[in-house]
Amino acid sequence: MLGPPGAGKGTQAARIADELGVTRAASGDLFRENLRNETELGLLAKSYMDRGDLVPDNVTIRLVMSWISAPQQGDGFVLDGFPRTLPQAEALDSALEPGGIDRVLYVNVAEDELVKRLAGRFICRGCQAPYHAIASPPKEEGKCDDCGGELYQRDDDKAEVVKNRLDVYFEETEPLVGHYSRSGVLREINGEGTVDAVGALLVEALR
Question: Adenylate kinase active site lid domain: which residues (predicted)?
């Protein structure tokens, strides 16, 4: 899954993984899991994520490649948020030889829409359920509908960090669109429809 922050990659990657019956990994979730376990990689990654910067390639590659090589991924997998740079893409191409990636799905969303989406996102501290101030607000402000947990905004979703996140994406990650387009595996999808409509387009692109 390829696309800017706020494009809905996480939601759609989970749906696609269920559709295909395979596992899914989001690099951000892997980093946060390592942080909860107080690993060296997790603490190092947090210092970059809190500023809205990309985690360095050598840190990201070590973590994701370890996940890919696990037996559970033997029947295939969906990657969400990796690769993010050309060196990461090249490392992934090398690790998956022969054959490489079957399909890269690029979810394209306009920048003004991305800012609106990102600045309104909140997460439950208890069950990690996602909310949005406009699109999917909780019944009671600041409280999770499911478990009653406190809702918080991730540091990298705060308004002052959002613009930097998008600047970093367009500088370092958007070149991947050209990289995978040249290899013939890229499919571009308009990500500004409903979740179901975008999901249907993605499944069609896979087929």
Answer: 121-156
Which residues, at least 6 apart from 101, have a Cβ–Cβ distance to it below 8 Å?
Answer: 92, 93, 180, 185
Domain residue extents for the chain: 9-206
Comparing 55-59, 122-126, 178-182, the range with the smallest average pLDDT is 55-59
Catalytic residue annotation: 9, 84, 121, 154, 165
Of the candidates 76, 116, 114, 108, which has an alpha carbon nearest to the alpha carbon of residue 176?
108
In CATH terms, 9-206 corresponds, of 2.60.120.260, 3.40.50.2000, 3.20.20.105, 3.40.50.300, to 3.40.50.300
Neighbours of 133 (CB within 10 A): 15
From CA 118, how far away is CA 131, in angstroms rounded?
11
Q: How large is the C-alpha radius of gyration of the chain?
A: 17
**Using one digit for the tens of pLDDT, what is the confidence trace for 71-88?**
888 888 999 888 888 888
Where on the phi/psi map is residue 59: left (φ > 0), alpha (ψ -120 to 50), or beta? alpha
Mapped onto helix, strand or coil, the DSSP state of residue 22 is coil
Q: 190 - beta bridge partners?
A: 108
Backbone angles phi, psi at 170, to 5 degrees: -65, -30
pTM of this structure: 0.73
